[in-house]
Amino acid sequence: MTTAGVSQLGDARTGKLGGNIVAFGRALRRAGVRTDPARIALATDAVALIGVDERADMCAAMEAVMVSREQDRMVFRELFDAWFRDPELANKLLAQMLPSAEGKAEPSKRRPRVREALSAPREPMQAAQTEREVDFDAAMTASDRQLQKHADFNALGASEYRLVERLARDIALPVPTVPSRRLRVANGVSSHARMHWPGVLQHAARTGGEMLRLPRLARREEPLPLLVLVDVSGSMERYARLLLAFLHAATRRAGRRDVFAFGSHLTDLTPAFRAADTDDMLALANAAIDDFAGGTRFGDSLAELHRLHARRLIGRRTLTLVISDGLDTGEPELLERELLWLKRHSRRLLWLNPLLRYEGYAPLARGASVLHRHADAMLAVHNLSALGQLAASLAALMRSGR
């Protein structure tokens, strides 16, 4: 590392390097990377052993002890480059922040999580100004929520992502209902309701044999059994957690719901979805999924579903939701065969695809084309607005009979 680079990192003998690493750890937390004081202390020890002569070695040593998830690796590297930057890069960043007479500066290409972590934290409000600024903050909050309603989940910063995840839990998704075999006493008179003879006799006994009212029976309406298959591969990592939180809260009152995650293999999340609290469900799901942010072999996962969990599909009543971008790396013949089986045992097979955020999107990839051929419909799930329209789209599809 150059002399200039060492001066940016600080001098370990005077304690500046340790302070820089602690501040860097805090920036990582703002970017959503899971780190704690123990990891920061371990990173300080690692840098003390490796030294600061080679920038790449120092980055690798800190990354080895501070990054535990694959999805955080690129965020760490970008943030490391920005945090322990050389003077030339710092001047370039400063130039981007200054107003230019030639026009707008080139927009930053950094990841949203890195941009947010590098932004200066807000100064606490002065006590005398607090009351005066309340109205302004409330207006900004409403504006921010309106903007985030249409923001792509993949473009959110860490704090925005947490806010949107919370907002998604308030969106309702009524599961379509169908008449069941069970009967209930009808409130009104319907041409399809049958006479409730025991009720007629009980009523006549109370009125001295007078038939003042004729109780009837009608079929009870029950929500369709729900089967959800969520893609947790690397290309879906920014959507999977948020959509799992949404589905857990939105389908809380569904009669029966079976949920599976699929990546390189199948993971049964149904026990996790029995948790009453959404945060508890996410913690259980995180512990259960061991191939998160990996590859996608949808055909193999469906074959495992067919072999081990076929009883989860109740006749042809099950409403099946497949949440995926369709970027499959498995064999298309196997996917074709298993999708045919799944389609035969589902009332509707719906594909919820976040790639519909792109105008003019076409399912041209191998897995996507097979999935598109067998799905009854393809719906968008890339932002809060799309999630809000999902219930109406489901109801319209059920009514249309497609």
What does this structure look like?
The chain has 402 residues and is an alpha/beta fold. Helices cover 49% and strands 12% of the residues. The protein contains 18 helices and 9 strands. A 6-stranded mixed beta sheet has the order 6-5-4-7-8-9, sandwiched between helices. The chain has a 3-stranded antiparallel beta sheet with strand order 1-3-2. Helix 2 (16-30) crosses helix 3 (37-50), helix 3 (37-50) runs antiparallel to helix 4 and helix 10 (158-168) packs parallel to helix 12 (237-250). It is elongated. The relative contact order is 0.08. Mean pLDDT is 78; it is low at 1-14, 96-105 and 122-140.
Order of helices and strands: HHHHHHHHHHEEHEEHEEHHHEHEHEH
SS content category:
alpha/beta
User: What topology, given as strand order, has the largest sheet?
Assistant: 6-5-4-7-8-9
Number of helices: 18
Helix content: 40-55%
E-strand count: 9
What form results from the Cα inertia axes?
elongated
Spans with pLDDT under 50 lasting ≥5 residues? 1-14, 96-105, 122-140
Rg over CA atoms: 28 Å
Biggest beta sheet summary: 6 strands, mixed
Strand content: 5-15%
The N- and C-terminal alpha carbons lie at a distance of: 64 Å
* Overall pLDDT confidence: 78
Secondary-structure blueprint of this entry?
Blueprint: H1 3-9, H2 16-30, H3 37-50, H4 55-66, H5 73-83, H6 87-97, H7 112-118, H8 127-130, H9 134-149, H10 158-168, E1 177-185, E2 194-195, H11 197-206, E3 216-223, E4 226-231, H12 237-250, E5 257-262, E6 266-268, H13 270-273, H14 278-288, H15 298-308, E7 319-323, H16 332-344, E8 348-352, H17 366-374, E9 377-379, H18 384-400
Parallel strand pairs: 4-5, 4-7, 7-8, 8-9
Antiparallel strand pairs: 1-3, 2-3, 5-6
Helix pairs in contact: 2-3, 2-7, 3-4, 5-7, 10-12, 12-14, 15-16, 16-17
